[in-house]
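Table S2 (continued). Query chain:
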Amino acid sequence: MFLLISVISNAQRRDSLSSVKTGFICQFTYNYNIPGGDLAKRYGGGSGVGAGVYYKTGTNWFFGVEGAYWFGAKLREEGIFDAITDSNGYAVDNNGGLVPVDAQQRGYTLGVKVGKIIPLNRRNRNSGLMISLGGGYVEHYLRLANNTLNVAALQGDFRYGYDRLTSGLMINQFIGYQNLDKRNRLNFFIGMEFMQGFTTSRRKIDYDLMTGNPNKRMDTYVAIRFGWLLPIYTGVVSESGGYRFK
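Corresponding output:
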């Protein structure tokens, strides 16, 4: 009787503990970026959508690649189009009509990352505090609205004199929470991301300044970031340290 109780108790204890799963985790992300540094002088807040994949080891370390596309941030920097617009921000198109000159930020990041999952509950050791460091490339520019296509001063290569194309290397940090459901029903992460971009202008001349801008920039943002995760598991590390392939 006592032997049977002991066996059942040990089995229940093993069932209550979680194994660490290894494998590839695909991610599909959204973030809202709050700019800082030189980036905040040019743009307001904007959105980003992205994707990536990372490999999670049996010790809950992970490493991978990811990218994101930026859009939607309004232009803050003043004076860029003053030479071709009136006091209300309208330019004359090829038909003699007045059109507003509107522009928004576009851009992207591409990079690699490495991080660690710190479990908060032994019953699910694949979930917990998520911390990562990364680095890569960042680029951003002004995208003119379609209604400016008929403005002679903004047609063809002339647009490049106003688009403020800027790029360089970047580093980022993330802290948040990752949930990988044991039943694979609800897999997500949420947290805060911090980016620092060491950038410069890529245009030889900005038409509104009639000169180039070789100054180094510090483009930063703080982002609220979350995403859906699609795990593709390759193996399991048990509580005792043994490994088996899926």
